[in-house]
Amino acid sequence: MAATTGATPSAHPERPGRSDGVCSEFTVFTTIKPGEADALREDLAAMADAADDEKVHAAVRQIGTLHDARHVIFDDDTRFMFASVFDGSWDTYIDDFAQTVVGARFERVFSHSEGFPGIHDPGVKDWFVAHQAPAGVFVSAYPELTVQQIYKDKRVDDAFQEVLDTPEFRAALKSPANAELVATPAFQKLLEEAAA
To answer: What span, in angstroms and rounded, lies between the C-alpha atoms of 171 and 72?
Structure first.
């Protein structure tokens, strides 16, 4: 694995952040407007409740590049952190969020941060860059896999597991006509991986 350390620049040098393979990190630290920590907390709770909302999952799937995201209030309710891992270019990542239901949620959450211009403001990218701090070390568990590849791998695995559970497949494994195929190292590896 080619883990990213302090010496490895972003795959997108025009923007801060570190990369490991196809994955890049995005971490923003902001100052919460005085007296708005509870409102931010309420908006985050509503966002967490909506995490099961089909619209949110559909938007995340539509964007198709977000691996994960975290929102944290810290320093006695004075600071806020948003951190995520994504595929592709930084600019495309920000643009994609602004154009979905997720953008409206970003608008609401970041509106509690000092100086936030709004998700659709032409200066929003400059604001994010000014508040972004690259990780000292960033390591991905699967640096060679994009979100789209992970989705595909899951669909293929689900379909394969469904085939494995059929009586027809078990009968085909025992058929003398398939003995040569079943004995190949590649097929045996496939069965071993499926059983793991």
So the answer is: 53
